[in-house]
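Suppose you are handed a protein chain with no further information: no name, no annotation, nothing but its sequence. What can you learn? This example shows the usual starting point.
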Amino acid sequence: MLPNTIWKDETMPNHVDMSAPYSHVRELKCFIFDIDGTVALGTRPLPEAIDFILRLRAAGKRVIFYTNNPNRPHKQMVDYLGAMGFEPREDEMISAGDVTIAYLKKNHPDAKVYLVGVPEMEQMFIDAGIRVVSASSPTADVVVSGFDKSFTFDKAAAACRMIQRGATYICTHPDRSVPIEDCLLPDAGSIAAMITAATDTAPIFMGKPMPEGMALIEQQTGLRARQMCMIGDRLYTDIAFGNRAGATSVLVLTGGTSAAEGEAATGDERPDVIVPHLGVLAEMF
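A reasonable first move is to predict its three-dimensional structure. Written in structure tokens, the prediction is:
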């Protein structure tokens, strides 16, 4: 049985009944997984994550990997997860990069965009038809920042200059840190905090917990959010995303959140279920 916390809260539309803790989750049609800290750390799969996902597919459930990491095109995500044994398909992938690209195409279809991010993210945007400009451009219509391992003062200065000259500011995702095997590293939210401090301009955040991602998942699966389960390790991204959309939310303690933090969470960040790892959920199938 589920050993940690299953809250009975009548204000939560998708709570799991403690008297029958498995029945509700078993009926769900789609299981959305965060990646970093939930199914893997770096190139190492987390305990029993592969077993759980393979059981879900065998039970006829739809599996989606939704990462706030915008840096890998779908094929690279498939190769990355496939090398660990998850047997993923390209139609199971969605990232904050996909969500940001979709938002730009809808709301800024002809915009000149300056990107602060890794080369892989830049290539994704170019391949999607986004008009990307360099740091030497005097202006841009939109500045997009994300995770960037080669973030420099010159990149920050270019972004700040363009924002102060009128560019709309977008950040791919709000995560302040990314978990690896032995520590937490700065993520897109930390870079955005620096740019915001310099320009006094907060970004429009994409990725989890914003609702645009659920619209893409519903379109991709043909299912509604109430038929889904969002599983992740971050309260302010994964859990808030699931709760705001109306999905069942499950917090795993293999990444960036402790049991005490999960149990103390309130509002959108309060999980329906807390489990130590995905193996606990695998027992349902």
